[in-house]
Amino acid sequence: MGSFSIWHWLIVLLVVVLVFGTKKLKNMGSDIGGAVKGFKEGLKDGNNFESSEEKKVEEKLSASEKTSDNTINVQAKDKS
User: Fold this and answer.
1) How far is CA 19 from CA 8, 9, 14, 24, in A?
2) In this predicted structure, what is the pLDDT of residue 8?
3) What is the mean pLDDT of the chain?
4) How many CA atoms lie within 13 A of 32 on its CB side?
5) What whole-number distance in Å separates Cα of residue 77 and Cα of residue 80?
6) Residue by residue, what is the 3-state secondary structure of 26-43?
7) DSSP 8-state class, residue 71
8) CA–CA separation, 59 vs 66, rounded Å?
9) 3-30 pLDDT tens trace
10) pTM of this structure
11) How far is residue 13 from each of residues 21, 36, 51, measured CA to CA in Å?
12) SS3 string of 6-70?
């Protein structure tokens, strides 16, 4: 049970191309690339959303601290 040689991989590639065809392989590749790109953009948007929400909360807390000294500020977080 040794490792596969280059000839084994070429035969596997040939069988895959014969079964799926080059057009389907090209479409699958572009679909996977688009999904990865969308995932990366979603991660960036999520980080920007969290930082903007944190700024809003800090502004609210600082504004409410200025209005009264007897108020206790508590922030409840929703589980999501």
Assistant:
1) 17, 15, 9, 10
2) 92
3) 77
4) 6
5) 9
6) HHHHHHHHHHHHHHHHHH
7) P
8) 11
9) 778 999 999 989 988 888 888 888 888 8
10) 0.40
11) 11, 24, 46
12) HHHHHHHHHHHHHHHCHHHHHHHHHHHHHHHHHHHHHHHHHHHHHHHHHHHHHHHHHHHHHHCCC
Q: What is d(CA 8, CA 2) in angstroms, rounded to the nearest whole number?
A: 12
Tell me the percentage of the chain whose pLDDT exceeds 90: 14
What is the residue type of 32?
I
Q: Where are the domains of the chain?
A: 22-58
d(CA 29, CA 22): 10
Q: What is the mean pLDDT of residues 23-49?
A: 83
Contact 40, 33 (CB under 8 A): no
Residue 62 has pLDDT above 70, yes or no: no
As a dihedral over the C-alpha atoms of residue 73, residue 62, residue 51, residue 79, rounded to 10 degrees, the angle is: 10
